[in-house]
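Structure, all four chains, one model.
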Amino acid sequence: MDRFGIAVADINGEVYGVGDWEVPFSVQSISKTFSLALVMANDNDDIWKRVGREPSGTPFNSLVQLEWENGVPRNPFINAGALVVTDRLQTLTGDASTTMLHFLREESGNPDLAFDQAVADSEADHGDRNAALAHFMASFGNLENPVPSVIEHYFWQCSIEMSCRDLAAAGGFLARHGLRADGSRLLEAREAKRINAVMLTCGTYDAAGEFAYRVGLPAKSGVGGGIVAVVPGRCTLCVWSPGLDRRGNSVAGAAALDHFTTLTGWSVF
Amino acid sequence: MDRFGIAVADINGEVYGVGDWEVPFSVQSISKTFSLALVMANDNDDIWKRVGREPSGTPFNSLVQLEWENGVPRNPFINAGALVVTDRLQTLTGDASTTMLHFLREESGNPDLAFDQAVADSEADHGDRNAALAHFMASFGNLENPVPSVIEHYFWQCSIEMSCRDLAAAGGFLARHGLRADGSRLLEAREAKRINAVMLTCGTYDAAGEFAYRVGLPAKSGVGGGIVAVVPGRCTLCVWSPGLDRRGNSVAGAAALDHFTTLTGWSVF
Amino acid sequence: MDRFGIAVADINGEVYGVGDWEVPFSVQSISKTFSLALVMANDNDDIWKRVGREPSGTPFNSLVQLEWENGVPRNPFINAGALVVTDRLQTLTGDASTTMLHFLREESGNPDLAFDQAVADSEADHGDRNAALAHFMASFGNLENPVPSVIEHYFWQCSIEMSCRDLAAAGGFLARHGLRADGSRLLEAREAKRINAVMLTCGTYDAAGEFAYRVGLPAKSGVGGGIVAVVPGRCTLCVWSPGLDRRGNSVAGAAALDHFTTLTGWSVF
Amino acid sequence: MDRFGIAVADINGEVYGVGDWEVPFSVQSISKTFSLALVMANDNDDIWKRVGREPSGTPFNSLVQLEWENGVPRNPFINAGALVVTDRLQTLTGDASTTMLHFLREESGNPDLAFDQAVADSEADHGDRNAALAHFMASFGNLENPVPSVIEHYFWQCSIEMSCRDLAAAGGFLARHGLRADGSRLLEAREAKRINAVMLTCGTYDAAGEFAYRVGLPAKSGVGGGIVAVVPGRCTLCVWSPGLDRRGNSVAGAAALDHFTTLTGWSVF
């Protein structure tokens, strides 16, 4: 629990880091940012007919909101929404998890990135809640692929192992207003800004308001202890430290980002 | 419904505008931004023990969330939260609504600002829902003053009449990182940024995510048809047009702000 | 907490009892049965346009259900529903609490029954939750009288002091299919049966299913520790013991009724 | 939609009927009464550790209540609860649906009763919502068998075709305080009464209170248009008419039962 790393990738692709910044960890929910970007790159705004953009309120209400809103999840970063995004990526590409793995290898410049089979299998063993969400959305007609296939690709995506260095580099397109590492365009500037907006309002579970208040940057966290944050036009950061608060965000990671924006004044506000 | 005005106040206090930018309208919920600022100026962070900073999810859930979270409203911009903030301002100043009126007169440079008694009375006639919220919070011990007094000051604050010009000028401290029109400090830079963060995540009713996605600026709307938005370090805007969407935000006002950030590239993302 | 009394009133008006059966206690929610009967006696079925007949699910959901169902409480035995019934009795009689007191004096044959002013005042001091419910229903147009007046009469009704003897006698009309102690008709047989049905499905807070399962009799409990139960066509019982379970029902009282139906076989099932 | 049948089985096993009383229809949710009885016959009270006995409030809340109560359904007659009962019957017998079919053949005296494969298959094609419920409960550890197996047996049970005659006869043990058609004991008298209590408080979807109020008998309805009702100690009825109200209960069937209790005075109240 006392491990900590931080990496900063500037918009030219240079990455700097300290601490355990090259130690790989499980990206978990951070993968939701990349699957959303890949779907938006292929599909323009169509995904927003199937998933909303509003924060989700308390976790306690997630299921009732899904029912209340006819199977349309509130945003792409809660599990239900991420399943819809993965489902769409599967339809668009025929292999959602491999598509993401190849994208992350290219953007991070690390050809050794891989799925962690043990992690994916372990999640599958405890996947009843995600299966419940997927079947529930299917009952509203909001899934295009069979539930087991969607669940499987979702777990594989979450199981990818990356370091702070890898993630800061791979998230560079969010700071470069949509340009990939090789200078080609993944997303329109407008689209990249919009992913940042969704990260800021929905990226850190039920603590998005708290995170915006303290840190003031778009960010996406994962239960592996990683957090990716963006200073638009300047840099992408990734922090990692395994100890989580009760909402599922890295305690030391959030504190480091708070400190970072206080020192640099680089909060978006 | 075809009236429209927009005003921009730069950080030096110059205000420019077009259309009906000098026509007064009822500030309504925009007043919640000012009562929050006045409480934070006097009370540091204590208010956050009595009100949260998280978006509220669907309006449908507002009461159940209040019960679930023991009478602590999710944020200061839903009605329950604003009642708590007004209650605190009343305790701190002895006269919450007059304190706000004087502050708005000074910051806008318009000594003629006044309450609209007819509007305040009309709201009092239909105030059962706010009375319900206030009594409910009182049952959890989260009000310091008698319910009728809190409700009354809340309605007076909402009834203040201001134009786009007045509001853009009065909200200048949010773009100036806490400095008032006369150069004195109302809030620490950190505190002003944090109010901007709460505006971005919670300022436009149940459309905050949508608003961040399309406009990308901290903003607070009111059912009078006004919206105040902030470009930190640059300017404060106010748009006004009475036609509202189903969430209570000005349709033409939101479109104008969307257009503005697309043209200028001044989204915070 | 070790006090216990039980009384049985047969349909001829004879009352038998053991233990503390003549000790007065606060009737509290048991009064809801009598206010419902008095409204139905005057108003036929009109009250059912303003209050439902369905069990209310978890207490946690009570407010959200009230919102979901447009201010119409689920049944007359939850607080919101009882406030509507008292409001109607107030409209019909001009003095809801005095009307009930006189009725209870006549049916019990005890002219000394009285309000307990200290109890009523104490509830008024902590009445914020009931005030919240009343204002909330008023916001939906489901109250005919001013909130403070409805609340006051409601508290007075709850504060009446009666013994097991008094309550078993006063509830005799429920076993006599609507006939009062003097043989005159208060309710149609059909109406009396229907009050018994509402008691069985909704009369013991969130434990009505459990109570039907164990005891099998229509019953209404109060937080004063009393429970009135009905064996239709045979007798009315009242038990009293102050220790409550987590749902607000008398522990020893429920156990005594369970024992009674097991011994006699007089469950309605 | 203009078909109608009614059958009455007295406690000696004689069955009388009029109209379409010998036309088979799909038992659907009426099967939940029989699976509960079969589990209680084998398992005493253990099932109540895994399913509650309280009415469920609005259908809207069913999922949130399941979450709020840690995967324990409110009662055995909502779908979630029936899945738990079927799961337990599967564990106890190794073949839940065949066990029920054999039981129903014996009690009805009709050896031709059979599953309707087309109905079972059709439900499986649209079974996402039940799969969601089952996975959700599995995530709380409240299923003993694999989700697909539980779902399959549940659908088979619902698909059994029976007439009013068959169902009135098969439900005879509920009027005979637990004695089977051949005089042997299926359930203790206490247990049979308790199933009647659960039927009265929870047997007709979200209209149990309304049903108790109007009809005053323990009853269980199904979306096939059938309703089984019990006059304890006297007879078991079954009505059938396909037109359903918005809660899923047969309109003509409920009216017929209302008429029956008004004429006979055989309401339990």
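The CA atoms of residues 261 and 267 of chain A lie 5 Å apart.
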